[in-house]
Amino acid sequence: MLAARRPRMFVARLDSCVESTPLARYLLRAYLSGLPSGERYSDTAELLLGELFANAVQHSDAPDDRHIEIRFSLTGSRLRLEVHDASSGHPTLHAATPDDEHGRGLFLVDELAERWGCALRPGGIGKFVWALVAPAPVPALVTV
Predict the structure, then answer these.
(1) pLDDT-above-90 percentage for the chain
(2) pTM of this structure
């Protein structure tokens, strides 16, 4: 009997620009379409990836920071998202004022991810921010 194959980690390097954010979300949708219950992650995961990617673009401070690496993997029943960049700055959670036009992305990550964090890139320059996304609950069947 053959065991079902699990999708492996997906890795891609994208240009560090705002225009790459939709491509990052598209690649995530394609990855999730290969999972038996990928649709249960899609809404939250796309939002979180978009916020993490946009933050990496906005806060780039390294002169050679031309690319951002994204990684997706399924760990148990959790989807792990990672966004790698060459920036030395670590994200900090703060409350945005009602007049702020920016500054809510990490708040969304904190609210919607099961867990998230930031770590130094192994053997390299910069850091990566990761988030674990739990699957959305399966809607209950209504019997009449």
Answers:
(1) 55
(2) 0.85
